[in-house]
């Protein structure tokens, strides 16, 4: 019989050798998780040098607490969280990264943002495209320095057009590829400021019938 050895990541653990059907999958998951952690730590170290944190494509379901710890002495200017499976941003994000100017949350699974995000006084550009928002977040009207908001490829049906028109900072909003209702669609097309990018609306079958 072979003497027992410590698992070094290159051999099958003891439970796998004894026939545990879950062991191979557990080992693979552990390896993937280990690589993801190493990637996150490495990118935090890079951000300590350039103040630009890139955590895109890191298999994140949330922003790990370790990130806040690693970045505690860094005045972060931009943060890229795109291409993960994040469902929400915690309020403490705004406390830890209060000086951020560029935030990329695209290609995640978010449907809302915390109210605290509106307190990011330096935020100028926000990308929430390719998520599951059904209404344009309040940050569009309340963030004092936000001039660019990318919200295309969502499920947005609710837009407060009046508040959007009164926004002092906003210069450009991309709302293309959203199921915006006809009345809201027309109102958005009439805005002179901010500049709105919006897809041409496809007429419903019942509208075609009325024309005929």
Could you characterize what this model shows?
With 212 residues, the chain is α/β, with parallel strands linked by helices. The chain has helices at residues 14-17, 23-50, 65-70, 92-96, 139-142, 161-166, 182-189, 205-211, and strands at 52-54, 78-80, 102-104, 125-127, 148-150, 172-174, 195-197. The protein is built from eight helices and seven strands, in the order ααβαβαββαβαβαβα. Strands 1-2-3-4-5-6-7 form a seven-stranded parallel β-sheet. The chain starts with 13 loop residues before the first helix and ends with a helix. The model is unreliable at 1-17 (pLDDT under 50).
Poorly predicted parts: 1-17
Please give the largest β-sheet.
7 strands, parallel
The percent range for strand residues is: 5-15%
Strands ordered across the widest β-sheet: 1-2-3-4-5-6-7
Total helix count?
Answer: 8
Rg from alpha-carbon coordinates = 23 Å
What form results from the Cα inertia axes? globular
Let me know the number of strands.
Answer: 7
**Average pLDDT, all residues:** 84
What class would the helix/strand composition place it in?
alpha/beta
User: Helical residue percent?
Assistant: 25-40%
Taken in chain order, the helices and strands follow as HHEHEHEEHEHEHEH
Distance between the termini: 84 Å
Nutshell version of this structure?
This protein has 212 residues and is α/β, with parallel strands linked by helices. The chain contains eight helices and seven strands, in the order H-H-E-H-E-H-E-E-H-E-H-E-H-E-H.
Write the layout of secondary structure elements.
Layout: H1 14-17, H2 23-50, E1 52-54, H3 65-70, E2 78-80, H4 92-96, E3 102-104, E4 125-127, H5 139-142, E5 148-150, H6 161-166, E6 172-174, H7 182-189, E7 195-197, H8 205-211
Parallel strand pairs: 1-2, 2-3, 3-4, 4-5, 5-6, 6-7
């Amino acid at each position: 019989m072979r003497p027992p050895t410590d698992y070094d990541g290159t051999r099958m653990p003891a439970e796998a050798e004894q026939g545990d059907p879950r062991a191979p999958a557990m080992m693979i998951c552990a390896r993937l998780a280990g690589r993801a952690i190493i990637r996150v730590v490495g990118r935090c170290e890079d951000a300590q040098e350039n103040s630009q944190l890139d955590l895109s494509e890191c298999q994140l379901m949330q922003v790990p607490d370790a990130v806040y710890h690693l970045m505690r002495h860094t005045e972060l200017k931009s943060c890229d969280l795109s291409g993960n499976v994040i469902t929400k941003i915690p309020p403490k994000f705004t406390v830890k990264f209060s000086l951020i100017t560029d935030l990329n949350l695209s290609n995640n699974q978010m449907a809302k943002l915390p109210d605290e995000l509106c307190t990011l006084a330096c935020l100028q550009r926000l990308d929430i495209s390719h998520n599951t928002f059904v209404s344009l977040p309040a940050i569009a009207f309340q963030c004092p320095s936000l001039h660019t908001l990318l919200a295309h490829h969502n499920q947005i049906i609710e837009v407060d057009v009046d508040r959007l028109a009164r926004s002092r900072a906003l210069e450009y909003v991309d709302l293309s590829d959203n199921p915006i209702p006809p009345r809201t669609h027309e109102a958005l097309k009439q805005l002179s400021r901010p500049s709105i990018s919006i897809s041409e609306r496809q007429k419903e079958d019942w509208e075609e019938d009325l024309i005929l």
